[in-house]
Amino acid sequence: MVKPATPVFLSIGECMLEFSHRVENDWSLGFAGDTLNTAWYFRMHARAPWEAAYFTRLGQDAFSDRIAGFLEENRISTRWIARDCARQPGLYLIDTPKGERSFTYWRSQSAARLLADDEVLVREALAGAQAIYFSGITLAILAPDRRRFLLGEIAAQKKAGKPVAFDPNIRPRLWESADAMRAAIKDAAAVSTILLPSFDDERMHFGDVSLAACARRYSGVGVAEIMVKNGGGPMLYADGGGMIEIVGLPIVEPVDTTGAGDAFNGAFLAARLAGAVADAAVRQAHECASAVVRHRGALIPMP
Questions:
Q1: Is the pLDDT of residue 129 over 50?
Q2: All domains of the chain, ordered by start, with CATH?
Q3: Taking a C-beta distance cutoff of 8 angstroms, is the pair 12, 55 a contact?
């Protein structure tokens, strides 16, 4: 009997060098990025036999080697990571006065901006995955034609029956215009089966007046499952069976909110892909995010 292949959760996006502020003039180097963070927490919470894999583009420099080695040491597959001889990873600094994040970025020449240039590799990676995850930042860093190409390839995977998860993760400064941002997010939602929006962002940039309005808007473009996050407040889950408001989850005092939403996404998707009902998946995800905000930096150590 042929042993079934291990199912792969493929996260697509940008990994950067992360410097987080500890004390005066003391910074700690790590590796992070929204889609890497989600892959990390998926890997942390996934039940056998799921494998986490990351798709990006790195340079050929020593820091790129360190990123790849870091992923491999933590059993996140790097088999589809391309290398670029002319570019390096992006970099960002985090300062956290009173627990809230303040970011400074250097990413305009990041190798990940060309992650969709190798069309053969993109198709190979998507074909080799059994579940796919990407974000609004994944799309924002790409040239418009590469954005359209990637969305077209992801659409083909959705049509083939694979679960596709998308977090709009709205960062206006990364986009060429607000109209391009809103159009791309709508197009990305249309090729997704699971959506993970954050209500504050959606209210600000799409005018949603309630969690339910946000869920209805995305349901209208064909998303089957919508998990509206709400920064520690009541959340809402919606699917073909209706809407469920989730309230009463414990609130913790944050040390650093970096990566909290990404952690929620990874733990939620790990639970849902293992067959957990929505309420159980939300509670696992909230517990994971609560642990992350009590830790400095985006990634807590892998068990």
A1: yes
A2: 8-292 (3.40.1190.20)
A3: yes
CB 164 within 8 A of CB 154: yes
> Which residues does the annotation mark as catalytic?
262
Q: In the 3-class helix/strand/coil scheme, how is the chain assigned residue by residue?
A: CCCCCCCEEEEECCCEEEEEEEECCEEEEEEECHHHHHHHHHHHHCCCCCEEEEECEEECCHHHHHHHHHHHHCCEECCCCEEECCCECCEEEEECHHHCCEEEEECCCEHHHHCCCCHHHHHHHHHCCCEEEEEHHHHHCCCHHHHHHHHHHHHHHHHCCCCEEEECCCCHHHCCCHHHHHHHHHHHHHCCCEECCEHHHHHHHHCCCCHHHHHHHHHCCCCCEEEEECCCCCEEEEECCEEEEECCCCCCCCCCCCCHHHHHHHHHHHHHHCCCCHHHHHHHHHHHHHHHCCCCCCCCCCC
Cβ atoms within 10 Å, residue 244? 14
**Number of residues in the chain:** 303
pLDDT band at 97 (very low <50, low <70, confident <90, very high): low
Cα 92 to Cα 32, 88, 147, 202, 290: the distances in Å are 9, 13, 23, 25, 23
For the whole prediction, is pTM greater than 0.90?
A: yes
Tell me whether strands 164-167 and 57-59 are parallel, antiparallel or unpaired: unpaired
Residue 105 in tokens: 């970025």
The residue with tokens 């360190």 is 66
Other CB atoms within a 10 A radius of the CB of residue 66 amount to: 15
Q: Which residue has the higher pLDDT, 100 or 70?
A: 70
pLDDT of residue 99: 52
CB 141 within 8 A of CB 38: no
Q: What CA–CA distances, in Å, run from 254 to 31, 93, 164, 194, 260?
A: 21, 18, 30, 27, 10
Amino acid present at 12: I
